[in-house]
Write a structure and sequence with these properties.
- This protein is mainly alpha-helical.
- The chain has one domain (about 5-120).
- It has helices at about 5, 30-40, 60-65, 90-100, 110-120; strands at about 70-80, 80-85.
- A two-stranded antiparallel ribbon has the order 1-2.
- The chain is globular.
- The protein starts with a helix and ends in a 10-residue tail after the last helix.
């Protein structure tokens, strides 16, 4: 998959294009520190594709997979990070499973993502407990 910022140097990651990764850097006045922080935090595991469900807790994802065999088509691992490709039905089932089974700690990285997005867009988020 080629990203827009890979072929057009005028496009700046986290300024013009939002890139989802398991560790989201805080916004700042300059994109340089954001990109550096992200690269350091991810420790070279940038080759994986990331989707929002990858931010759910490993405990919750393991429980979902145990309860729904066949919902995951493929798993890719890089270091401590794991990406799962879900079937269409698997994604729908995961949403229901999260609604029914997730505790706040299972979705905290999703909450942090929402805070990071709001920070990037300069929207208030201090009412969100992170």
């Amino acid at each position: 998959m080629q990203r827009a910022c890979d072929f057009d140097r005028r496009i700046i990651p986290y300024q013009d294009v939002f890139l989802l990764h398991p560790v989201m850097p805080p916004a700042s006045g300059s994109t340089g520190p954001i990109v550096e922080h992200r690269a350091k935090a991810l420790n070279g595991h940038l080759r994986l594709d990331w989707e929002i469900e990858d931010l759910l807790s490993p405990r919750l994802l393991r429980a979902f997979q145990a309860a729904n065999p066949g919902a995951v088509v493929k798993e890719t691992t890089a270091g401590t990070f794991r990406h799962r490709d879900f079937t269409r039905q698997g994604k729908t089932g995961l949403l229901r499973f999260v609604r029914d089974q997730a505790a706040l700690e299972d979705v905290m990285d999703v909450v942090r993502l929402v805070c990071a997005l709001r920070d990037y867009l300069q929207l208030p988020f201090n009412h969100i407990p992170v």
